[in-house]
Specification:
Elements lengths: L17 H15 L5 E7 L3 H9 L3 E5 L3 E7 L3
Antiparallel strand pairs: 1-3, 2-3
Length: 77
């Protein structure tokens, strides 16, 4: 399993769409280069900004546990 983590450390750069762009580029790469069929993601329940980024990048919520939301994006979905 390969894991990738995005974090905007500079508050002045948040809210400008950089996270969404990075997420889309990473997913496109995962589908095209190694030929993955699906990409999974998770975020803390309290992290609304991360949830919005995932949803804007085309991820669908597939579950929730005590502390996390779980998302997935399929290659042709």
């Amino acid at each position: 399993m390969t894991r990738l983590f995005f974090a905007m450390q500079n508050d002045r750069q948040k809210g400008k769409g950089y996270g969404t762009i990075a997420e889309r580029l990473a997913v496109d790469y995962a589908f095209e280069v190694p030929g993955m069929e699906a990409v999974n993601a998770d975020t803390l329940l309290k992290n609304e900004r991360s949830r919005r980024v995932l949803e804007k990048a085309g991820f669908q919520c597939v579950g929730r546990e005590e502390s996390f939301w779980y998302y997935q994006k399929r290659k042709n979905g």
